[in-house]
Amino acid sequence: MAEFKTAQPYHTMDRQYHETIEVDPVSSHANIEEPIIPISELGQTVPERDPAGRFKNVIQSAQASMRAGAGKIQLMFNVPSESAIGGRPKGYGTEVREALRDVFAANEAILSGVEMPTSINNLSGYDPQRGTFDDEKMKRDMDEVKDAIKFASDVGQGGGVDIVSWEYARPLFNADWNKKDRKGNQLFEEAGEPVVQVVDERTGRISQWRINQIERIPVARDPKTGKPYAFVHEIGRFAPIDKDRPYTTRPIGKGKFIVEQDGKEIPCVDRLQPWKWDDYRKWAKEESEKTGEKVTPEEYFAKEQVQAQIKQARGWATTYKDSAKRTYGNIQDLKKELKAAETAAEKQKIEADLYDLQKKYEQEVDTIQSYEQQAAENEQMANAFVPLGKYAMKRTVNSYAKLGVAARQETLYNKNIKSPLYVGPELGWPHAFGSHPEEFKELIERSRQEMIKLLTDKKVPDPKNPDKWIENPYYEPGMSRGEAEEAAKKHVKGCLDTSHMGMWLQHFKPELPWEKRVKEFNKWYMDEVKKLAKSDVVGSIQLVDSQSGAHGHLPPGQGIFPVVEAAKEFKKQGFTGFMVSEGHEEESFNEGRILVETWKAFNAPFESKYGPGMPPAQGFADIHNRYQGRSYSPKMMFGSYVPPFGEYKPWSEIPFE
Length: 657
Description:
alpha/beta, TIM Barrel, elongated, disordered N terminus
């Protein structure tokens, strides 16, 4: 057994393994530099299903990690939430939970938290496959998180529960934080053509359009006034006027006209002018400043698309009304002819024509009603459109707030709790909201504000009827706002995955040479880390590195990102949460690299209680180059196992296992 503190470890292959002698406290600590972070604070993630294919169960995996030296562990649930059998909190009964708790206690280790499977990647009910927001999906995901809170309470007696944050697909081109440089280039670029997305808040159904569709809108607007270009029938031109009020037209030359309305002269155009995305952004900004309410370009664009459909439906309804009016007149004429008919043959022919006209009239009336209904439905849909981000954020923060209350209640009512339970998002991937540090921070802060409201407001809007108010089931009588703020900070915290942060390299200034690109990106990386470290929204950190912008799981120091510097910055700002290595991608080369390489990167020394059998290490490289932490097995005997006749190794050079 090795105790990780300040000096050299020894194991069963060391000479004098069983001898107890005094250790010189000065000479035992040859490395004069202080560790960046002590080993006691550097844990590791443990997947419930062993990714290396060794078929260990969760207890065996946890035990193996503790024997390797992990004092803090984050358990990763990696069985999909749709799986009916095996894994996740529902797969571990009372005795298994008790066994896990005993294993942690016996090894003086801590279950710092759990991570939900990536099949649960948002709490808004967002379902990208179906293109909708589903209340049932949101409920199922929240129930899974509540199960995980209970599991962390039973086994770990506290800690965090984090959910990877892919709240909804959002483009990069119109994000507020994606600023342009002096040359007009954005900091982050995305492949493919961006889309504009809105949600019908009645149904949760998502509608989207590609940006290249914008130039084909049937109605353009005057960039200066925002008024639509209306078709002036008298002159066959378009002008930004209100057709429902009086106006006059006046020729000013060959083929040129001026329209006068409200005493102003308005020039005409021959055709609709292209209305680009930047025009919508400008229009939305002006309207927001004018009304004091934030209006998004997505709303304007979506409503313009639907308005075109409304006008088309009403136009066809008008056309069929005219036709139906003529048909009705013909029917009346035939009825008169039928009365005046003298012979049976004439009557029979008129009756046949009358029958055909009546059928035609019925069809025209049905068509008119269909187009009018279509126009009415589209009008309701246009009024129900809200920006995707606004809709999703409202649902997400409400879910996190409710789960924060659940974590608080479990913390209060479980007498065995050793540290507060909390829940929060894990920094996601660049393709979705919740992955940029600004979005990550906003999500946590808004969730905390919502939790404060849940704890202090007596009544809340009825989810089924927003115009009605009902009793708030989460209200805690007597709780002050200050107490609610402290509770929200304690029970809603996020998890920073340093590799996910590195994935932004995929979109960062792709035109730069690789070395310069990485250098500039790492500067941005550390600037964002400093902001997060000061914001007090992070409860845990997954220390992961990567060799590129792809999603990687290398131990710290084995990639290109400033993972160690990031952790150091958090400690500088007083961070007290747990840090775990998630670098399990190299475990197939040698089990234990997830920890040993992390200790090496953080300059974390350690010692043994069994007494010295080898000279003290001068640095972590010395420890790494001995048997402990090697990426290969030894080819010779050493320590107390060496035969009397001296050093021994097989002629075949086969490593000892």
